[in-house]
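Quarterly update from the structural biology core.
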Amino acid sequence: MSRTREALKAMSVERLDIVLTDDMIDGGEKFSDLGVDSLDSIELIVSVEDMLDIELSDERLESVENIKDLAEYLAEFD
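Predicted structure, tokenized:
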């Protein structure tokens, strides 16, 4: 499994108390369906950036609509 996907899963548990499965990620669960509001999603993204020591483009993040989109974007940093 990719380090970025592992980071996403770890930060989801740590910051949001949500256990993400591969099926949830691959199925494209919407953030709202996971109980994640916009503030939660920003916190998650910042935590993943810090954990992986990367910087995500705000412009690119605007097109992220669900957890799958975020995972695919993060995979570019593997």
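Residues 38-52 form the longest helix (15 residues).
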